């Protein structure tokens, strides 16, 4: 298990920004998260960007202070659960708050230093144990190097990652907060009315029926992917987003194809193989040649093949690098 890693060397290569963005994208959309810990650690690291020594090192106390502050706010002040079960860190904070009878309406900064210390004594071991190795692995060592074993303790930013975080601090913080809030929403039933949910649902899917009819009435009698005849399959004809909906978040006819049920369900959120890109580009040329369709469909009017090619190319950077074929 990656969280069990007790130490890891920092990558000694120099890093391009693109590579760091890629790793962040992977982290946000692909990495496994059963607790909110990794988000908490990134927030703690960002808060400490300006506190590093000349070797870009931080002490575990510096990180622990910021990390505990994040959880005090979420767990004590707002009473939010962080996972299916209460995490070790949340449990430790709740215990300390109850035992020392600390006021729940104060921020962590406002607590007395001796109270802060006693809480950190409980949270720090859990933080060290569960988070550093996991986040280190998610970033393949390009974010930091660390050793959490007691006699060799150190934490050190990769110089390029440090510059990157300074440069895009605000953007990364927003992204972390967004994904953190989304995760917390899952574990806190009252959050159905959370603003974030409402903000996100702007891009709700519309019915694809009209597109289905247009495509069927034209030429598409076969599954775009496996070529199986869709002849009389009726309701079994699926409309598939060539570039997954979770990436484009809109329904444009130039990104829609007809497919059989199996292909549609199999493909899910994946981007089709290269050969299908050529096919859909050709298909779109023929759609676009129909003047009547262009008048009806604004998205087709603005369609250029380069648009779809770019979207296809950038799907990698957005975490859709896996290619699919039936
Ligand atoms: Zn098929």
UniProtKB/TrEMBL annotation:
InterPro entries documented for this protein: HNH_nuc
CDD domains: HNHc
Pfam annotation, one family: HNH_4
Molecular-function annotations in GO: endonuclease activity
Protein origin, superkingdom: Bacteria
Record keyword DNA repair present: no
Record's keyword terms, sorted: Endonuclease, Hydrolase, Nuclease
Domain HNH nuclease: 210-265
Protein name: HNH endonuclease
UniProt organism field: Salimicrobium halophilum
């Amino acid at each position: 298990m990656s969280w069990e890693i007790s130490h890891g060397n920092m990558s000694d290569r120099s890093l391009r920004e693109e590579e760091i963005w890629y790793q962040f994208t992977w982290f946000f959309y692909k990495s496994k998260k059963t607790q909110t810990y990794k988000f908490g650690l990134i927030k703690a690291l960002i808060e400490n960007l300006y506190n590093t020594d000349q070797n870009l090192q931080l002490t575990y106390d510096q990180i622990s202070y910021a990390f505990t502050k994040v959880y005090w706010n979420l767990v004590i002040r707002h009473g939010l659960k962080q996972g299916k079960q209460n995490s070790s860190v949340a449990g430790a904070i709740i215990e300390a708050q109850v035992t020392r009878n600390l006021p729940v309406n104060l921020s962590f900064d406002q607590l007395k230093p001796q109270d802060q210390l006693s809480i950190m004594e409980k949270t720090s071991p859990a933080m060290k144990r569960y988070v550093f190795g996991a986040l280190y692995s998610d970033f393949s060592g390009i974010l930091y190097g660390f050793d959490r074993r007691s006699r060799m303790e150190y934490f050190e930013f990769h110089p390029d990652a440090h510059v990157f975080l300074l440069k895009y601090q605000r953007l990364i913080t927003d992204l972390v907060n967004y994904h953190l809030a989304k995760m917390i929403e899952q574990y806190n039933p009252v959050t159905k009315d959370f603003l974030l949910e409402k903000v996100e649902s702007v891009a709700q899917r519309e019915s694809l029926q009209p597109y289905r009819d247009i495509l069927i009435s034209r030429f598409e009698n076969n599954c775009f992917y496996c070529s199986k005849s869709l002849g009389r399959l009726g309701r079994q004809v699926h409309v598939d987003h060539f570039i997954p909906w979770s990436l484009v978040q809109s329904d444009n006819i130039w990104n829609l194809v007809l497919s059989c049920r199996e292909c549609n369900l199999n493909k899910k959120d994946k981007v089709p193989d290269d050969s299908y890109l050529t096919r859909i580009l050709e298909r779109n040329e023929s759609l676009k040649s129909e003047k009547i369709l262009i008048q009806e469909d604004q998205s087709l009017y603005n369609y250029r093949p380069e648009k779809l090619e770019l979207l296809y190319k950038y799907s990698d950077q957005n975490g859709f690098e896996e290619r699919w074929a039936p």
